[in-house]
Write a structure and sequence with these properties.
Blueprint lengths: L13 H19 L3 E5 L4 H14 L3 E7 L7 H12 L3 E6 L1 H8 L5 H22 L3 E5 L4 H8 L18 E3 L7 H10 L4 H4 L19 H20 L8 E5 L4 E6 L2 E14 L7 E2 L4 H14 L3 E6 L13
Parallel strand pairs: 1-2, 1-4, 2-3, 4-5, 8-10
Antiparallel strand pairs: 6-8, 7-8, 8-9
Helix pairs in contact: 1-2, 1-7, 2-7, 4-5, 9-10
The structure holds xanthosine-5'-monophosphate (XMP).
Protein backbone atom coordinates (compact mmCIF):
# COMPACT_ATOMS: atom_id res chain seq x y z
CA UNK A 1 0.00 0.00 0.00
CA UNK A 2 1.62 3.22 -1.14
CA UNK A 3 -0.73 5.80 0.27
CA UNK A 4 -2.80 6.16 3.38
CA UNK A 5 -6.40 5.53 2.31
CA UNK A 6 -8.59 8.58 2.91
CA UNK A 7 -11.02 6.52 4.97
CA UNK A 8 -8.40 4.74 7.11
CA UNK A 9 -9.45 4.73 10.78
CA UNK A 10 -6.90 6.34 13.12
CA UNK A 11 -5.17 3.62 15.15
CA UNK A 12 -5.98 4.51 18.75
CA UNK A 13 -6.52 1.15 20.46
CA UNK A 14 -4.48 -2.04 20.97
CA UNK A 15 -7.04 -3.94 18.86
CA UNK A 16 -6.63 -1.62 15.87
CA UNK A 17 -2.84 -1.81 16.27
CA UNK A 18 -2.96 -5.62 16.33
CA UNK A 19 -5.03 -5.69 13.16
CA UNK A 20 -2.55 -3.37 11.42
CA UNK A 21 0.40 -5.52 12.56
CA UNK A 22 -1.23 -8.69 11.30
CA UNK A 23 -1.97 -7.14 7.91
CA UNK A 24 1.55 -5.72 7.56
CA UNK A 25 3.22 -8.99 8.52
CA UNK A 26 1.31 -10.77 5.78
CA UNK A 27 2.27 -8.09 3.24
CA UNK A 28 5.93 -8.11 4.35
CA UNK A 29 6.21 -11.89 4.02
CA UNK A 30 4.72 -11.65 0.53
CA UNK A 31 7.08 -8.84 -0.50
CA UNK A 32 10.26 -10.31 0.98
CA UNK A 33 9.85 -14.08 0.63
CA UNK A 34 13.06 -15.77 1.74
CA UNK A 35 15.30 -12.78 0.91
CA UNK A 36 17.30 -10.63 3.33
CA UNK A 37 16.57 -7.09 4.53
CA UNK A 38 18.99 -4.48 5.87
CA UNK A 39 18.02 -1.76 8.39
CA UNK A 40 19.90 1.13 9.97
CA UNK A 41 18.64 0.88 13.55
CA UNK A 42 19.26 4.13 15.41
CA UNK A 43 17.19 3.28 18.46
CA UNK A 44 14.76 6.10 17.63
CA UNK A 45 11.03 5.40 17.62
CA UNK A 46 10.55 4.85 13.88
CA UNK A 47 13.51 2.58 13.14
CA UNK A 48 12.85 0.60 16.35
CA UNK A 49 9.23 -0.07 15.39
CA UNK A 50 10.29 -1.09 11.86
CA UNK A 51 12.85 -3.49 13.36
CA UNK A 52 10.33 -5.03 15.77
CA UNK A 53 7.79 -5.45 12.96
CA UNK A 54 10.30 -7.10 10.63
CA UNK A 55 11.66 -9.39 13.35
CA UNK A 56 8.12 -10.61 13.87
CA UNK A 57 7.55 -11.06 10.14
CA UNK A 58 10.84 -12.51 8.91
CA UNK A 59 13.03 -13.18 12.00
CA UNK A 60 16.73 -13.34 11.23
CA UNK A 61 16.28 -12.51 7.54
CA UNK A 62 16.45 -8.97 8.92
CA UNK A 63 19.96 -7.66 9.55
CA UNK A 64 19.90 -4.54 11.74
CA UNK A 65 22.97 -2.32 11.91
CA UNK A 66 23.33 0.00 14.90
CA UNK A 67 26.03 2.61 14.31
CA UNK A 68 27.20 4.28 17.53
CA UNK A 69 28.58 7.62 16.33
CA UNK A 70 29.74 8.51 19.83
CA UNK A 71 27.11 11.26 20.06
CA UNK A 72 24.32 9.18 21.58
CA UNK A 73 22.90 9.75 25.04
CA UNK A 74 24.07 7.81 28.06
CA UNK A 75 22.76 4.24 27.96
CA UNK A 76 21.35 4.38 24.42
CA UNK A 77 23.61 1.91 22.60
CA UNK A 78 23.30 -0.45 25.58
CA UNK A 79 19.49 -0.26 25.38
CA UNK A 80 19.50 -1.07 21.66
CA UNK A 81 21.64 -4.14 22.32
CA UNK A 82 19.55 -5.23 25.31
CA UNK A 83 16.15 -4.83 23.61
CA UNK A 84 16.98 -6.03 20.12
CA UNK A 85 19.78 -8.56 20.53
CA UNK A 86 18.95 -9.98 23.96
CA UNK A 87 15.16 -9.69 24.18
CA UNK A 88 13.91 -9.78 20.57
CA UNK A 89 16.78 -12.02 19.36
CA UNK A 90 17.55 -9.75 16.42
CA UNK A 91 20.36 -10.37 14.00
CA UNK A 92 22.14 -7.17 15.12
CA UNK A 93 25.45 -5.75 13.95
CA UNK A 94 26.77 -3.23 16.47
CA UNK A 95 29.43 -0.83 15.21
CA UNK A 96 31.25 1.44 17.65
CA UNK A 97 32.45 4.18 15.30
CA UNK A 98 33.03 6.78 18.04
CA UNK A 99 36.70 7.38 17.21
CA UNK A 100 36.03 7.75 13.48
CA UNK A 101 33.36 10.38 14.05
CA UNK A 102 35.21 12.33 16.74
CA UNK A 103 38.44 12.35 14.73
CA UNK A 104 36.59 13.75 11.68
CA UNK A 105 34.88 16.36 13.86
CA UNK A 106 38.04 17.52 15.64
CA UNK A 107 38.45 21.29 15.37
CA UNK A 108 35.18 21.79 13.44
CA UNK A 109 33.08 24.54 15.06
CA UNK A 110 30.62 25.46 12.31
CA UNK A 111 27.22 23.84 13.01
CA UNK A 112 26.24 22.97 9.44
CA UNK A 113 29.70 21.57 8.75
CA UNK A 114 29.38 19.38 11.86
CA UNK A 115 25.98 18.13 10.65
CA UNK A 116 27.38 17.39 7.19
CA UNK A 117 30.35 15.45 8.56
CA UNK A 118 28.11 13.41 10.87
CA UNK A 119 25.61 12.66 8.07
CA UNK A 120 28.24 11.69 5.51
CA UNK A 121 30.26 9.60 7.92
CA UNK A 122 27.11 7.78 8.97
CA UNK A 123 26.36 6.78 5.39
CA UNK A 124 29.96 5.71 4.88
CA UNK A 125 30.01 3.46 7.96
CA UNK A 126 26.61 1.99 7.11
CA UNK A 127 27.62 1.35 3.47
CA UNK A 128 30.83 -0.36 4.63
CA UNK A 129 28.82 -2.69 6.85
CA UNK A 130 26.34 -3.36 4.04
CA UNK A 131 29.18 -4.31 1.67
CA UNK A 132 30.38 -6.94 4.16
CA UNK A 133 27.02 -8.69 3.98
CA UNK A 134 26.02 -11.12 1.26
CA UNK A 135 22.71 -11.49 -0.50
CA UNK A 136 20.83 -8.44 0.75
CA UNK A 137 17.98 -7.44 -1.57
CA UNK A 138 15.97 -5.03 0.52
CA UNK A 139 16.54 -1.90 2.58
CA UNK A 140 14.03 -1.16 5.34
CA UNK A 141 13.25 2.43 6.28
CA UNK A 142 11.29 4.08 9.07
CA UNK A 143 9.45 6.44 6.74
CA UNK A 144 6.16 7.63 8.26
CA UNK A 145 3.14 9.37 6.70
CA UNK A 146 4.13 12.94 7.76
CA UNK A 147 7.54 12.44 6.03
CA UNK A 148 5.74 11.73 2.78
CA UNK A 149 3.33 14.66 3.18
CA UNK A 150 6.20 17.03 3.99
CA UNK A 151 8.26 15.95 1.00
CA UNK A 152 5.20 16.30 -1.26
CA UNK A 153 4.69 19.83 0.01
CA UNK A 154 8.35 20.69 -0.46
CA UNK A 155 8.96 21.29 3.26
CA UNK A 156 11.81 18.82 3.58
CA UNK A 157 13.39 16.22 1.36
CA UNK A 158 12.25 12.73 2.24
CA UNK A 159 15.28 10.64 3.26
CA UNK A 160 15.50 8.43 0.21
CA UNK A 161 17.24 5.05 0.52
CA UNK A 162 19.38 6.41 3.34
CA UNK A 163 21.55 8.37 0.87
CA UNK A 164 23.53 5.23 0.05
CA UNK A 165 25.98 5.24 -2.89
CA UNK A 166 24.34 4.67 -6.29
CA UNK A 167 25.96 1.28 -6.88
CA UNK A 168 24.10 -0.07 -3.87
CA UNK A 169 20.55 -0.42 -5.04
CA UNK A 170 18.01 -2.08 -2.84
CA UNK A 171 14.27 -2.42 -3.05
CA UNK A 172 12.66 -0.43 -0.22
CA UNK A 173 10.61 -1.92 2.61
CA UNK A 174 8.60 0.71 4.49
CA UNK A 175 6.16 -1.01 6.84
CA UNK A 176 5.01 2.10 8.78
CA UNK A 177 4.78 4.42 5.79
CA UNK A 178 1.06 5.11 6.17
CA UNK A 179 1.13 5.75 9.93
CA UNK A 180 1.06 8.98 11.91
CA UNK A 181 3.52 9.24 14.82
CA UNK A 182 0.93 8.53 17.54
CA UNK A 183 -0.06 5.36 15.66
CA UNK A 184 3.59 4.29 15.34
CA UNK A 185 3.90 4.43 19.15
CA UNK A 186 0.80 2.30 19.79
CA UNK A 187 1.95 -0.26 17.21
CA UNK A 188 5.45 -0.28 18.78
CA UNK A 189 4.09 -1.08 22.22
CA UNK A 190 1.97 -3.92 20.81
CA UNK A 191 5.12 -5.30 19.17
CA UNK A 192 6.68 -5.56 22.63
CA UNK A 193 8.98 -2.53 22.67
CA UNK A 194 9.51 -0.86 26.07
CA UNK A 195 7.22 2.12 26.80
CA UNK A 196 10.26 4.39 27.31
CA UNK A 197 11.55 3.54 23.84
CA UNK A 198 8.36 4.31 21.94
CA UNK A 199 7.38 7.39 23.96
CA UNK A 200 10.83 8.92 24.18
CA UNK A 201 11.41 12.60 23.50
CA UNK A 202 12.71 13.69 20.08
CA UNK A 203 16.46 13.42 19.63
CA UNK A 204 18.27 14.93 16.63
CA UNK A 205 20.23 12.73 14.22
CA UNK A 206 23.52 14.58 14.92
CA UNK A 207 22.85 13.80 18.56
CA UNK A 208 24.84 15.42 21.33
CA UNK A 209 27.09 16.89 18.63
CA UNK A 210 24.72 19.86 18.27
CA UNK A 211 24.57 20.28 22.06
CA UNK A 212 28.29 20.85 22.27
CA UNK A 213 28.48 24.28 20.54
CA UNK A 214 31.93 25.01 19.13
CA UNK A 215 34.46 22.32 18.23
CA UNK A 216 33.55 19.05 19.97
CA UNK A 217 36.05 17.71 22.48
CA UNK A 218 35.73 14.39 24.29
CA UNK A 219 35.74 15.95 27.77
CA UNK A 220 33.04 18.52 26.98
CA UNK A 221 30.98 15.87 25.16
CA UNK A 222 31.18 13.75 28.31
CA UNK A 223 29.97 16.73 30.36
CA UNK A 224 26.94 17.05 28.04
CA UNK A 225 26.22 13.31 28.25
CA UNK A 226 26.47 13.14 32.05
CA UNK A 227 24.46 16.31 32.70
CA UNK A 228 21.77 15.13 30.26
CA UNK A 229 21.56 11.80 32.11
CA UNK A 230 21.08 13.61 35.44
CA UNK A 231 18.40 15.89 33.93
CA UNK A 232 16.52 12.90 32.48
CA UNK A 233 16.75 11.00 35.75
CA UNK A 234 15.42 13.95 37.77
CA UNK A 235 12.62 14.71 35.30
CA UNK A 236 11.54 11.07 35.48
CA UNK A 237 11.61 11.08 39.31
CA UNK A 238 9.66 14.34 39.50
CA UNK A 239 6.83 13.46 37.11
CA UNK A 240 8.04 15.65 34.23
CA UNK A 241 8.97 12.81 31.87
CA UNK A 242 6.25 12.46 29.24
CA UNK A 243 4.84 15.86 30.31
CA UNK A 244 7.60 18.10 28.95
CA UNK A 245 8.04 17.73 25.20
CA UNK A 246 11.83 18.00 24.99
CA UNK A 247 14.55 18.64 27.58
CA UNK A 248 18.29 18.42 27.46
CA UNK A 249 21.54 20.12 28.43
CA UNK A 250 24.03 22.09 26.37
CA UNK A 251 27.66 22.83 27.25
CA UNK A 252 29.08 25.62 25.05
CA UNK A 253 32.77 26.12 24.55
CA UNK A 254 33.28 28.90 27.08
CA UNK A 255 34.60 28.92 30.62
CA UNK A 256 33.98 31.15 33.62
CA UNK A 257 35.63 31.53 37.00
CA UNK A 258 34.29 29.55 39.92
CA UNK A 259 35.35 27.92 43.20
CA UNK A 260 35.57 24.20 43.90
CA UNK A 261 36.95 22.80 47.15
CA UNK A 262 38.28 26.22 48.10
CA UNK A 263 40.22 26.64 44.86
CA UNK A 264 39.69 28.71 41.74
CA UNK A 265 38.04 26.57 39.06
CA UNK A 266 37.85 27.80 35.47
CA UNK A 267 35.14 25.54 34.11
CA UNK A 268 32.22 25.34 31.67
CA UNK A 269 28.63 26.39 32.22
CA UNK A 270 25.90 23.80 31.64
CA UNK A 271 22.67 25.19 30.17
CA UNK A 272 19.38 23.40 30.80
CA UNK A 273 16.64 23.65 28.15
CA UNK A 274 13.10 22.33 28.64
CA UNK A 275 10.41 23.24 26.13
CA UNK A 276 6.89 22.42 25.09
CA UNK A 277 5.51 22.52 21.56
CA UNK A 278 3.03 20.86 19.24
CA UNK A 279 4.91 20.90 15.96
CA UNK A 280 8.43 22.19 16.88
CA UNK A 281 7.80 25.34 14.80
CA UNK A 282 7.26 27.42 17.94
CA UNK A 283 7.96 26.45 21.55
CA UNK A 284 7.34 27.70 25.08
CA UNK A 285 9.56 27.23 28.12
CA UNK A 286 8.61 24.79 30.90
CA UNK A 287 8.12 26.31 34.36
CA UNK A 288 10.47 24.09 36.37
CA UNK A 289 9.85 24.25 40.16
CA UNK A 290 12.61 26.28 41.84
CA UNK A 291 13.45 23.49 44.32
CA UNK A 292 14.00 21.04 41.47
CA UNK A 293 16.20 23.59 39.73
CA UNK A 294 18.30 23.97 42.90
CA UNK A 295 18.63 20.20 43.17
CA UNK A 296 19.70 19.95 39.50
CA UNK A 297 22.33 22.65 40.05
CA UNK A 298 23.65 20.83 43.12
CA UNK A 299 23.87 17.49 41.33
CA UNK A 300 25.30 18.71 38.03
CA UNK A 301 27.98 20.96 39.58
CA UNK A 302 29.06 18.22 42.00
CA UNK A 303 28.76 15.13 39.81
CA UNK A 304 29.83 16.32 36.38
CA UNK A 305 33.55 17.02 35.94
CA UNK A 306 34.32 20.38 34.35
CA UNK A 307 31.04 22.15 35.23
CA UNK A 308 31.01 24.99 37.78
CA UNK A 309 27.74 26.75 36.83
CA UNK A 310 24.26 25.76 35.69
CA UNK A 311 22.04 28.18 33.75
CA UNK A 312 18.40 27.86 32.62
CA UNK A 313 17.40 28.94 29.13
CA UNK A 314 14.19 31.00 29.42
CA UNK A 315 13.99 31.71 25.69
CA UNK A 316 10.92 30.63 23.71
CA UNK A 317 11.05 29.76 20.00
CA UNK A 318 11.19 32.24 18.43
CA UNK A 319 13.63 33.87 19.10
CA UNK A 320 15.68 30.83 20.12
CA UNK A 321 15.47 27.60 18.18
CA UNK A 322 15.00 24.48 20.32
CA UNK A 323 18.54 23.23 19.73
CA UNK A 324 21.51 25.62 20.05
CA UNK A 325 22.96 24.69 16.66
P1 LIG B 1 15.02 23.52 16.20
O1 LIG B 1 16.36 23.56 16.88
O2 LIG B 1 15.10 23.72 14.72
O3 LIG B 1 14.48 22.04 16.43
O4 LIG B 1 14.03 24.44 16.84
C1 LIG B 1 13.20 21.57 16.11
C2 LIG B 1 13.17 20.06 16.36
O5 LIG B 1 14.01 19.40 15.42
C3 LIG B 1 15.06 18.70 16.09
N1 LIG B 1 16.31 18.90 15.31
C4 LIG B 1 16.88 17.98 14.52
N2 LIG B 1 16.53 16.71 14.24
N3 LIG B 1 18.43 16.50 12.85
C5 LIG B 1 17.32 15.98 13.41
O6 LIG B 1 17.04 14.81 13.18
C6 LIG B 1 18.85 17.76 13.08
O7 LIG B 1 19.88 18.20 12.56
C7 LIG B 1 18.03 18.53 13.96
N4 LIG B 1 18.11 19.81 14.43
C8 LIG B 1 17.05 20.00 15.24
C9 LIG B 1 15.15 19.31 17.47
O8 LIG B 1 15.69 18.39 18.43
C10 LIG B 1 13.72 19.66 17.74
O9 LIG B 1 12.98 18.55 18.20
Amino acid sequence: MNRRPDDMVRITTPELADAFIEEQIKALREQIGDKKVLLALSGGVDSSVVAAMLIKAIGDQLVSVHVNHGLLRKGEPEQVIEVFRNQLKANLVYVDATDRFLDKLAGVAEPEKKRMIIGNEFIEVFAEEARKLDGIDFLAQGTIWPDILESEHGIKAHHNAGGLPEDMSFELVEPIKILFKDEVRIVGERLGLPHGMVYRQPFPGPGLGVRCPGAITRDRLEAVRESDAILREEFAKNGLEGKVWQYFTVVPDFKSVGIKEGKRADEWACIIRAVNTKDAMTATVENIPFELMEHLVERITHEVPGINRVLYDFTPKPTGTIEFE
